[in-house]
Amino acid sequence: MQAGRNQNTNAIIAVLPGQEGRRFISLCDSAELSRGDVLCESNHPLRTAYFPTSGVISLAMALGALPPLQLGLIGRDGMLGATLPLDTLAAPLRAVVQIAGTAMAMPVAQLQQELRASPRLLEAVNHYQFRLMMQTLQTAACMHFHEIEPRLARWLLMIQDLSFTDKVQFTHELLSHALGVRRSGITLAAGSLQRQGLIRYSRGEIHILDHPGLEAAACECHEVLNDKYRAVFG
Ligand SMILES: [Zn+2]
């Protein structure tokens, strides 16, 4: 990760008006997010908060020796460190970069000062914390009730929404962990979406060809979650 300045858009920082926003950005460093970077282990203190401006961070739960299970995705809509207003001592989930990109980064101690000083920032972080909770709850229900293929379609839509990219670098292992299923299930689901002309995948890259078609193939969770956000936050 490299230091520097970055003024791209992040939804939480975008809430801060004029001078307050510029001041906050001036306090941030720019971070390059490389796929596979571990930003925080679960049950360890979070040292740095990240506000992605591109790219996607995955939140995962590990149980013993089992592979980590992905429960949430963070993109330009939010931040890593949204539980800080709760005075938490440790991060609840493992945070790993899923899609490479950039973020604005701020040491946690400094962000805690900013949260105490800015009711507007605190409100934006609290709202996002609630959104992230809704996303993880929806993901838990989705994993239990829905089939692999519509879940893969939903996951690709989420990645596209969060990162504004229609190309996703992937391995079968990555998708297996993302969806909590065996690699053979990923192969079947991706093959089916490709035969329908919705995606094309080769050499470790999925290219999303048909967004509306993917929405039709996805489970209801994608739309349900957007409806819930609108109902709660307008
Ligand atoms: Zn679902």
From TrEMBL:
Protein name (record): Crp/Fnr family transcriptional regulator
Record SUPFAM superfamilies: cAMP-binding domain-like, Winged helix' DNA-binding domain
Lineage, top ranks: Bacteria, Pseudomonadati, Pseudomonadota, Gammaproteobacteria, Pseudomonadales
Domain HTH crp-type: 151-216
Keywords for the protein's UniProt record, in alphabetical order: DNA-binding, Transcription, Transcription regulation
Keyword DNA-binding: yes
InterPro entries to which the protein is assigned, alphabetical: cNMP-bd_dom_sf, Env_Response_Regulators, HTH_CRP, RmlC-like_jellyroll, WH_DNA-bd_sf
Taxonomic superkingdom: Bacteria
